[in-house]
Amino acid sequence: MSSTAEVQKNTAPTNAPRVAMLGLGSMNGAILAGLLASSVQPEDVVATTRSTATAQARAEEHGVTVLAEAEDPQANQIAAGQADIIFLGVKPPGIVGLAESIADSLKPDAVVVSVAAAISVEMLQDALPHGQPVIRSMPNTPLSVGLGVVGLVPGAHASEADTRRVQDLLAACGAVHVIEESQIDALTGISGSGPAYAFYLAEQMADAGVRLGLDPALAADLAAQTLYGAGKMLVSDGADAAALRKAVCSPNGTTERAIHAFDEHGFPAAVTAAVTASATRSAEITDELRNAR
User: Fold this and answer.
1) Domains, the chain
2) What is the pTM of this model?
3) Nearest residue to 139 via CA among 33, 240, 58
């Protein structure tokens, strides 16, 4: 597999496979919302949650079958046994145990995809039958609105066809990159944690607007719409962030003055520190979970 990222974006899947979503936390929930907003049909999805109340709420929200572990302790095994692609969506410390619990229920060619941070391909493979196709992924929450980013790291037994099935499924929710596992922490630092950076910037822009006398609701809308529009410009064909920035910066104008203020207050260094901190923590959690086994 090449270290060069392979990208697919917003291509609706054909012949959608049967999908199991084990756990419906924020990330699996975002993926599910994105899939259902594309061509994936509710009848092709089965999900699980722990509580009956949550299962009922999610079933009503998404229109899919949701099994509750509180009602049937075998809910995960039942859902996984029906599926061609299984998304493991519990918190990182629970991923290996969940994989082990469904191991005997899986179809031999079913692809198991972890959406949890810090769970290595090796940890997944060790928890499942030998030869089971596994893929480590790092998605982000904008998948729920069809504008997400997800990195995929295929395991040793995941064929190109297996990887393509997962790519095709997720491509309806955003941009899909196939990468080496050595790149996953950096990807986590940029796109996995990245939506929070944008939200934080929007918060600070809005707060600054309020301090300058704007109504809070107006300031929040100005910040949100500005980031949304700028983001859409950035993903246009051939867009370059530096070129777009320079095009807005008239000599001695308002935007140039603002960019100088960013630089004077250490904005580039702060962004680098934030991305590095996220990537470093991702690697640390992997080591912690590996050592805890």
Assistant:
1) 6-180 (3.40.50.720), 194-276 (1.10.3730.10)
2) 0.90
3) 33
